[in-house]
Amino acid sequence: MIETGQKRTALYDEHVKLGAKMVPFAGWEMPVQYTSIVEEHQAVRSNIGMFDISHMGQLIASGSGAGDWLNTMLTNNICRLDIGQGQYTFLLNGRGGVIDDLIVYRIEKETFLLVVNASCTDEDFEWLDGHRWNNIHLGDRSTHFGGVAIQGPRVPNLFVNLPVRNQIVDVELEGIPVSMARTGYTGEDGVEVFFSAKDAVKFWNMILEIGRKLGIKPCGLGARDTLRLEMCYPLNGSDLSPDRNPIEAGLSVFVDLTKLHFIGRDSLLNMKMNGPGEKLVPFRMKEKGPPPRPHYAVFEDSERIGEVTSGTLSPSLHWGIGMAYVLAPHAKIGAEIEIEIRGQRFPATIEKKPFYKKPS
Fold first, then answer.
1. How far is CA 178 from each of CA 106, 174, 327, rounded to the nearest angstrom?
2. Is the Cβ–Cβ distance between 61 and 69 less than 8 Å?
């Protein structure tokens, strides 16, 4: 049963027409699947899948010095972005914990689009606004805009003149003005497309029609989760949280400690020098059986060494896979561990990222 007070994207009615199973997610009613998670997962790995991402937040920061200000708020280096480029980055609290992971695009010299997680939109805005320089304008366009992620190896057959990786461009598709970014969360080629909410239904149905001959399928949150976990991409609220930082999560490549100041830097610098107490590691089950799930305990030689944060049965590998925070001395590739599932321990192995590699 859907919880009361859940918001709906402009595509809600389209999801219902297509028979989607709707569930509460981050304050929204979202499709978890249309046909089956496995079928939608395989569509993305083999052809094309399209996801509604209209629930994600879209914030705009602008004004003289906007880039310099964002550099004090985010971990990656805004100075590296030319107009039309984007980067993955983190918004941290004073302890270095992750408030949100997001993508920031420089859309003009001093205007930036921040695409943030749905559950964090209000918190992100308040945190940024509370640290905003007087000459910076911060806006939230989330309710007026929608978006879709179109992912899969046949995406280049769907569009002409795709942007390059991590680039965002403004184009018009069948009379609909859109911003198209070549990013994604599945490990496949693809784009994220943003448009006015009033154009959402037209765009959604247009892409489904054009992509029909390419095997396109609408996809829900279930396939999104299995796809991202096969790539070891973190999920905010599970693998990332205000109590965890990017170094513990193995994501220090998106942290520029050469910047002299950003919120959380001192804590990260200290951890970089001394090493984290725990690390986020990917693991694979060694036996066919129940898949791992968040909060399951992790053991090594009868010692509890950590806890699972994400887990699923991989549709591509046909094995249970997951990620867990474990004590740093135990976080070694190839280490034999056990996952406790409903009172019984099952063998697993710490693996190298990612689980899934495209066939050569």
1. 16, 10, 46
2. yes
**Beta pairing partners, 164:** none
Burial of 128 (0-12, 13-18, 19+ CB in 10 A): buried
Instruction: With beta carbons less than 8 A apart as the criterion, state whether 99 and 92 touch.
Output: yes
Residue 137 CB neighbour total at 10 angstroms: 11
Q: What is the pLDDT of residues 289-314, one digit of tens each?
A: 899 999 999 999 999 999 999 999 99
How many residues can be counted in the chain? 360
31-37 mean pLDDT: 98
The backbone region for 24, taken as left when phi is positive above 0, alpha when psi lies in -120 to 50, beta otherwise, is: beta
Domains and CATH numbers, the chain: 12-55+144-230 (3.30.1360.120), 277-360 (2.40.30.110)
Q: Do 63 and 137 meet the contact criterion of CB atoms below 8 Å apart?
A: yes
DSSP-derived letter for residue 291 is: P
Beta strands in 136-249 (DSSP E): 137-140, 145-151, 168-173, 176-181, 190-196, 216-219
Q: Decide: 116 and 100 in contact? Cβ < 8 Å.
A: yes
Distance of CA 171 to the CA centre of its chain: 24
Asked whether the bond before 354 is cis by omega within 30 degrees of 0, the reply is yes
Integer angstrom CA distances of residue 303 from 171, 221, 327, 349: 56, 34, 11, 15
Three-state SS sequence of 41-100: HHHHHHCEEEEECCCCEEEEEECCCHHHHHHHHECCCHHHCCCCEEEEEEEECCCCCEEE
**Cβ neighbours of residue 50 under 8 Å, at least 6 residues apart?**
148, 149, 150, 151, 204, 207, 208, 211, 216, 217, 218, 219
Q: What is the mean pLDDT of residues 168-188?
A: 97
Share of the chain above pLDDT 70, in %: 99
0.85 exceeded by pTM:
yes
Longest dimension (CA), the chain: 63
What's the pLDDT score for residue 2?
45
Q: Dig out the tokens for 291 from the structure.
A: 């898949």
Could you tell me the end-to-end alpha-carbon distance of the chain, in angstroms, rounded to an integer? 44
